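Before going further, learn to read the protein records used in this course. The integers have meaning only within a learned vocabulary of local backbone shapes. To see the layout at work, look at the sequence and tokens printed below.
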Amino acid sequence: MQILDGKKTAESIRNELALEVQKRKESGKKTPHLAAVLVGEDGGSLTYVTSKVKTCEKIGFESSLIRYDSSVSEKTLLDKVNELNNDDNIDGFIVQLPLPDHINESLIKSSIHPSKDVDGFHPENIGNMVLNVPGFLPATPAGILELLKRNGVETEGKKCVVVGRSTIVGMPLSILLARNSNPGNCTVTLAHSRTKNLKEICLQADIIVAAIGKPEFITADMVKEGTVVVDVGTTRVPNPERERGWSLKGDVHFEEVSKKCSFITPVPGGVGPMTIASLMLNTLKALELKGQ
């Protein structure tokens, strides 16, 4: 069994980006600038956005963090999105999800200009992904592909089961893994909460991606020997033995499943760091596409 170390792989990407930023500065070119908009006090979102800001600092990107409390109006948020769309100093930006119930997430995502949509959620970028034409790929699925590629995980001709059909991870990843590309060329089954005989379906898989949001949902009896397992889950579960009062659990029962895998991602330290690395790659790409 080999650990797919997202932390180590992301570090390699950060080092590559840092060198590229240094070259840009030495030649007088613009430094990439990523902005993040955070609404409310969700602990997971705050941790994630803080990690993005810290990563920008490490690699030499400029960054901006715009914060609103959870009562912010939809109009105020849309006005800020429009302002960022028209700010030439900002190369790419994200609006951290989830948003409060009174704000239409789809409206916010579609209001971000496609050329600055480094999270890859705008309908135009999703359409480009489906058509396999250039655009920004969703950060988490793109990070997973990069993790597989850089660790030599073969995907061509493999049977892949993606458990979870969210528009952020499961649905786009199923499309990317089925595309005629590397990584890709899988035969993909997209499973979800209504799927019948899920255990039997998973037992046929060479690759399982767990992105259903239920801690330790994938157990050893659902995985055949030698399977590649990618765990996208990050659920905080109560743990009085920890000072912070909780532990982070993935969608895979790691202790059980890891004994049967050829490759597996840990939680934390697997997909999470790759998502942030992918976001940084998209931000640099956004700047390069402007010809700056």
Summary: The first helix runs from residue 6 to 26. The radius of gyration is 19 Å.
